[in-house]
Amino acid sequence: xxxxxxxxxxxxxxxxxxxxxxxxxxxxxxxxxxxxxxxxxxxxxxxxxxxxxxxxxxxxxxxxxxxxxxxxxxxxxxxxxxxxxxxxxxxxxxxxxxxxxxxxxxxxxxxxxxxxxxxxxxxxxxxxxxxxxxxxxxxxxxxxxxxxxxxxxxxxxxxxxxxxxxxxxxxxxxxxxxxxxxxxxxxxxxxxxxxxxxxxxxxxxxxxxxxxxxxxxxxxxxxxxxxxxxxxxxxxxxxxxxxxxxxxxxxxxxxxxxxxxxxxxxxxxxxxxxxxxxxxxxxxxxxxxxxxxxxxxxxxxxxxxxxxxxxxxxxxxxxxxxxxxxxxxxxxxxxxxxxxxxxxxxxxxxxxxxxxxxxxxxxxxxxxxxxxxxxxxxxxxxxxxxxxxxxxxxxxxxxxxxxxxxxxxxxxxxxxxxxxxxxxxxxxxxxxxxxxxxxxxxxxxxxxxxxxxxxxxxxxxxxxxxxxxxxxxxxxxxxxxxxxxxxxxxxxxxxxxxxxxxxxxxxxxxxxxxxxxxxxxxxxxxxxxxxxxxxxxxxxxxxxxxxxxxxxxxxxxxxxxxxxxxxxxxxxxxxxxxxxxxxxxxxxxxxxxxxxxxxxxxxxxxxxxxxxxxxxxxxxxxxxxxxxxxxxxxxxxxxxxxxxxxxxxxxxxxxxxxxxxxxxxxxxxxxxxxxxxxxxxxxxxxxxxxxxxxxxxxxxxxxxxxxxxxxxxxxxxxxxxxxxxxxxxxxxxxxxxxxxxxxxxxxxxxxxxxxxxxxxxxxxxxxxxxxxxxxxxxxxxxxxxxxxxxxxxxxxxxxxxxxxxxxxxxxxxxxxxxxxxxxxxxxxxxxxxxxxxxxxxxxxxxxxxxxxxxxxxxxxxxxxxxxxxxxxxxxxxxxxxxxxxxxxxxxxxxxxxxxxxxxxxxxxxxxxxxxxxxxxxxxxxxx
Length: 927
Prior knowledge:
The protein is an alpha/beta fold. The protein is built from 32 helices and 37 strands. The strands form 9 sheets. A 7-stranded mixed sheet has the order 5-4-18-17-16-6-7, with helices on both faces. It is globular and about 80 Å long. Residues 4-60 form the 4Fe-4S Mo/W bis-MGD-type domain.
């Protein structure tokens, strides 16, 4: 038996940067737990982080991981396994030829906020230093570039001035455009603790949806999508009117206030309330709480950033902080929460097309010269590089011939998927460097380079509060996979030889050598880390920047002295003017579609989607609508609808949600064609939520408008339904899901997700205008093992109904329902509960929707940690009479004692509180 080992790392999901302790047996990860010494989480983990070990299961990894290089030499051929030498020779030849014929800007790199800082640094140097192109951008462009631009325009540098500890010192927390309870759960636990410790703490939430975060707020501002600038300007107007600004601070430490003051004069409470769709009283309350507070802290994320006016939204909020002196002191500041684990590290090394190492600007000749000297190259190109959406437009147009995609999935995550897929098909060479071979983008790869991933990598990451964590690999590289930096360095050295360079500018033998060079580029900059080393990070733990040479600690919060990294040393007010959304609703497209995160999934789900239990809370793709809109359109829960924008259409089940205002729709950002698709228009196929979203760009940050699109919602008349679900051997479950993906495109609508906990199952759902060909149905059923003598069969060819059930050892193993699928609700629970079915007899095959006597559905899982369902919480509330009489906090405590829900990671606590409140209101109304 292998010896048990432990290694410290960080969680590879959001930007909170939680420390984890990875437990291995030397060959595989056997468990994870939160690192009690890590200052980001002090041992806590959310539902996603606490199941990280399940994503590293070797049985699943064997199906999902890219483990050896693959290459196809003919565009219409299949990729075949190849050696690293053969692949590298091919890539160098193609790059050299293409650059010689068309120039360095004919190639591009699209990389990721999930790379480590050292990986990022090498790719940046490869593109800008060796090849001579600024065509390198990152998926952080999709989430953080407006925050970068907002900080730079106002404070002078891309440096979040606050820290997590400020949550403990704040008197007002203003959450804008962030469902923190879902997107950054461990930070939200800290907010919950702060409220317990300070009963006077006020929480304001501005969001178009009544999310779990909004429900918990002392004041909820349900603003219309895209109206954030008007809201912030309106709050500043009130603060000016009521003398809540700090005139002395403005005069001593800022500039440009006079022009902004003239602008916000027009943002009267009535105008802003009408524009934002909120009440004047709530607007006044928000402004007074924020301005009069001793310490106001803003937390914001994609609701501000993913917008064609994202930079203005960020700047308008920072304006409010500067004017009221809510910055540079404990508990105060504008705090942008990063979405990816190392988006901050990528920004530090200049991973965006318009940046250079250590927060230098590509447009600044002195900065380019500094970096050229540091890298030992003649020059860094001055021509602006293509940003994410622009890059794929240039690929489609033929201006960029070769694209190298590393650790990201643009065929799921970029807006306007029609454009993206046309670009990938048109490119002369697509290289995908990836840990997972199951992503949609891998289908377009001419060359697949297998990379290491979490638990195998070594290097550093920086979280949202500027805290750098160093970690070592817990496991060896699987198969022929290599570290991202190793792949980039080897390619760079070979390309240098092809370019006849006399000496290499990539002399690295270890990842530490890369980090040391990155550290030197920060000397004298705002993020100076010349006082740090790998040894210090290992001995003293994670550290915040700046940490210059001679320092003994990093700095918790910035600008406490009122001096800013601008030419004048003063912060700058930006004259922010409210602009309506890039794509307003109209008679043809009357719904405002927003996108966002689900509680238990992350990004494109290439990792989290391998864990069956993470589907329990939101089991399948859907579009959420208000009950009012559902009733107006005669749509029932679960009915399929066409959601159509000016760019594409996706069929989805509709669900009624009390989160939603009338005229709004919401879809989880995670659902790509790996999980939901169909034939689409003109046989082109549909590809998830980003078939709908808009590529409109913010003029400053070039961040796309992923948060708002105008859509229409029409009921889908698809009378024939087909559903297959069953237990699948762990060694086959992900392979089956991948194999079903082409089949999904043969139906008008299809989805394929996982379910289960101790066992794993696959659920395939489809709908169409007419019954599918019997051969297709049979093929799908056989993939689930529904074949042979153990299958119970009922067929009604005249009505197009069929029920085929595989029984093993007296229990359901797999079920196929065609035509009438209404028995799903109880058959699936019988299968998941592994209940004996012998006593059911003919009921299993009767064409009745009636469930067996005594059957009660568990319903949706609320607490994933302890597998607690909504019905079980309801039962306890009903039995104890708490729903009508109990104090909410006391009820929650009693529920936790009885069911344990919310006692582990705490991610379900806001939802449990919502249930208590709603049941209480219902009980009192009934009484």
